[in-house]
Design goal:
This is DUF4468 domain-containing protein. InterPro entries: DUF4468. Keywords: Signal. The chain is about 35% helix and about 30% strand. The protein contains 4 helices and 7 strands. The radius of gyration is 18 Å and the shape is globular. The termini are far apart.
């Protein structure tokens, strides 16, 4: 019984520690989600970089428009993208910057510069006074989108995402 309770407690603690949430960065004053992931594949920095660019091309409308920096030598990719939302019962987007840094066998991701935007409403950075009343809902939706993007990217980098048949 004690072993079962300890196992459950450990599992819950692990989930809490590994769950990434949007937090206000004391240095930049901006909300961000950041974590370092040890990847199951032992790919080199250059291999991870190349696969990440492929993932971006497959998951964004135009990789050429989204990628702001692709520095293979330093293993860094910076993208500007958006998540669609119906946050206020109308079509809108949560714009963001995604920064990917690679070293052999690991990746650090940072999502930041969150701005809610919609036609007719304008742009509202998450740090603005406007966002105060809606911050919880906006953060929850954004965290879910970030979590989905990171999971998809990790699967692709590990080679567990649906891959095309190379034996054609």
């Amino acid at each position: 019984m004690k072993t079962t309770l300890l196992t459950i407690a450990f599992a819950i603690a692990t989930l809490i520690v590994s769950a990434q949430s949007i937090e206000l960065d004391a240095t930049t004053g901006k909300y961000q989600v950041q974590a370092v992931e040890e990847l199951s594949s032992n790919l080199s920095k250059d291999e991870l970089f190349t696969k990440a660019k492929q993932w971006i091309a497959l998951n964004y409308k135009s990789a050429n428009d989204v990628i702001q920096l692709a520095d293979q030598e330093n293993g860094k990719i910076i993208c500007r993208g958006n998540f669609s939302t119906n946050l206020f019962m109308k079509k809108g987007w949560i714009e963001h910057t995604m920064i990917l840094d690679f070293k052999d066998g690991k990746m650090r991701y940072t999502f930041t510069d969150f701005v809610y935007t919609s036609p007719g409403s304008g742009d509202y950075p998450f740090e603005s006074k406007w966002a105060k009343g809606y911050r919880t809902k906006a953060h929850a939706e954004t965290e879910a989108n970030v979590k989905g993007s990171v999971a998809s990217l990790k699967d692709y980098l590990a080679g567990t995402a649906a891959a095309s048949d190379n034996d054609w």
